[in-house]
Structure formats: C-alpha cells, structure tokens
Write a structure and sequence with these properties.
- The protein is 14% helix and 30% strand.
- The chain is α+β, with helices and mostly antiparallel strands.
- The protein has a single domain, classed as Fumarylacetoacetase-like, C-terminal domain (Fumarylacetoacetate hydrolase, domain 2), CATH 3.90.850.10.
- The strands form 4 sheets. Strands 2-1-13-6-7-10 form a 6-stranded mixed beta sheet, with no helix packed on it. Strands 4-15-14-11-12 form a 5-stranded mixed beta sheet, with no helix packed on it. A two-stranded parallel sheet has the order 3-9.
C-alpha cells in the first residue's frame, strides 16, 4: 500500500469499526435493542481516502450515507489491556467517515448475510489527518464533533454519549484481538446519518481535532 497517497505517516494495519454505539443512531435505524457488547466489523486499509480526495459512488446501491466518527490510532501492541492503561496505547486521533450503502445493508441484514458489500466497498473509509494524542489536550469522554453537507449541519455528537466509552472499547477489543501499532478504530456515529448525492461536499470537524472535507463526484 502506498501510504503517502493517503497522507499517513505510518503503515496502517487493520481498521476496526464500531456499530450501534450511540442510542439515537440506533433508534433512527429502527432498532429497538441496545447491544450488550460492542458491535465490531472491519474495513480493508486500502479503502482509506485522504482529505480532499474526490469520492466516487459505488457502482451498486442507491442510498450512500455519511457517518462521522472519532477515529483512534493504536501506537503499541497490547492484549487484555486494563481500562486504567488504555490511554497509553493511543498514539493519534482524528475524524473519519464510515460510508454506508444503507439500502444494500438492509437487504443483507434481512437475509442474515454479512455486511461487507454495504460497508467495505472502495473508498468507504475517508480519514482525516491524525493528530498526536496527548491526554491533557483531548478529553476522550467529552469530545464534540460534527458533519456538514453543503454547509448544512447533518450530524453532531459528543463522545460522552457513547454506549461503550473509548476506554471500555479498547479494553474489550484487546480481549478479542491483540491490538498492534497501526490499528485504526472508528468508534461509532451519532444520529443524523443521511444520503449524499452527486456533487455533495461533506465536511467533518471538531474544535480540538480540526476540519476535513471530501466531495462526491458529480459524474
């Protein structure tokens, strides 16, 4: 993988994504049950898209939706990480989009099939530039972030609204997989996901992380 084309000063290892981590997002999807453990799925690292790069609509599916998320970068190897030690394993923080083909996902879920075609298509992981993580600069339990489409606010969230807080997420994931340097964790999206159309400009921002944008091709 040519990491320089993705604006990454490191070699990405895996992309872990967390589903259903905000109550209001679960409700807007029509689900009734709050998960009792994190819902985890993965995306290939080749699907990472650097800020400013034009996005192309997948050749199948109609409802391409944005999901803004706080994204973490793991900086060292860890297994069964204690919650009190979690912060020492985080080396970077940014924002990203978990792009989703919602109509395709609904069909796959109804048939009891895996989600890959709805979540892991090409360019499905737009990713902002990572800032070095320092606990004194970033309060992971109270971090505001938003998503705008063509200048209109679509999503706004705070990490304090998570069902599984970041420290708890990393603890649990590390009990299932050995976390390694270069692992990336998308931590879940708040309510407000909606379909994007040809030519739309999507901006994600946070007062402490920064602002990043992508535009959907008009072709």
């Amino acid at each position: 993988m040519n990491i320089t084309s993705h604006n990454l000063p490191f070699t990405p290892n895996r992309i872990f994504c967390i589903g259903k981590n905000y109550d209001e997002h679960i409700k807007e999807l029509g689900d009734k049950q709050i998960p009792n453990e994190p819902v985890v799925f993965m995306k290939p690292v080749c699907n990472i898209v650097a800020p400013g790069v034009t996005l192309n609509h997948p050749p199948y599916g109609n409802e391409l939706q944005h999901e803004v998320e706080v994204v973490l970068l793991i900086g060292k190897e860890g297994k069964n990480i204690h919650e009190s030690e979690v912060l020492s394993y985080i080396s970077g923080i940014t924002l990203g989009l978990d792009l989703t083909l919602r109509d395709v996902q609904r069909k796959l879920k109804a048939a009891g099939l895996p989600w890959e075609r709805s979540k892991s298509f090409e360019q499905s992981a737009p990713l902002g530039v990572f800032k070095s993580y320092h606990p004194e600069k970033f309060d992971l339990a109270n971090l505001n972030f938003s998503c705008f489409v063509n200048g209109h606010l679509r999503q706004t969230g705070n990490t304090g609204q998570m069902i599984f807080p970041i420290s708890n997420l990393i603890q649990i994931i590390s009990s299932w997989w050995t976390l390694k340097p270069g692992d990336i964790i998308f931590t879940g999206t708040p309510a407000g996901v909606a379909t994007i159309q040809s030519g739309d400009k999507i901006v994600v921002e946070s007062p402490v992380i920064g602002s990043f944008f992508w535009q959907l091709s008009s072709e």
